[in-house]
């Protein structure tokens, strides 16, 4: 099915247009939260059922290692580029955003692969979980170094008052990486799927498979409305940020494809690795960076990821990654 005739993608476009035309259509926050948790649970179960059949092969280990490498190197590269045309605190925040991942983009990609009958490993759900936090930790380390540099250059010890909270944020982040509700639900569902196996898959099919497409479409409607709210603030930013928001995901996807090719990953896993590398977080990262790097402008890291990169990946990126990976 073509992306622009897929009902889920069409609902995203509908929500985007409704938001741009200032409609009062909205999805209540508790329902939106439920939908996101449902999608993560269904994705985890599906991955667990697949792992119950295949086990932890060499492909699984290599795929997970590739995911971690990308989660480390992408924010390092992004920061070096971004600091040339925006403040270093903003660069750290945006680098964290693009170094982390978008669960919704990933979930939509798995649905598209299913519709095109392209097989992929269930362990890629675990790869998504592993790629969530490294970029945030790296960004906080960058921010700490910037604050220390300010103290040294100005000789003003009052600036150091922000350092303990930043160090505390790293400790909290390490804790939240293992106990955050959404992350824990994904990993717990993955484990439950592995334990219950084929019998569990049959029992849960009406919940995790039959309802999935409809609830994904409903959630993408909400994402379209949310993306539209971030467009006005994004239009006031530097044109170089627009270039970054378009070019960086393609570059990151290219890195993922090269790594997948080098390691001999299956096509489906390579596509999802490209999707993960090219996506940008607009939930997990803003929630942490807002408090850990208060010097950064939220309009930049939220507006760029949700107002530009998320729609582009959803509408054009995923089909492109599928086509390129198939050809390679």
TrEMBL record:
InterPro entries the UniProt entry points to: Sbt_1
Superkingdom of source: Bacteria
Record has Cell membrane as a keyword: no
Membrane-spanning residues: 35-52, 59-79, 91-113, 125-143, 240-259, 271-293, 299-322
UniProt keywords, alphabetically: Membrane, Transmembrane, Transmembrane helix
Listed PANTHER family: SLR1512 PROTEIN
Protein name according to UniProt: Sodium-dependent bicarbonate transport family permease
Annotated source species: Undibacterium danionis
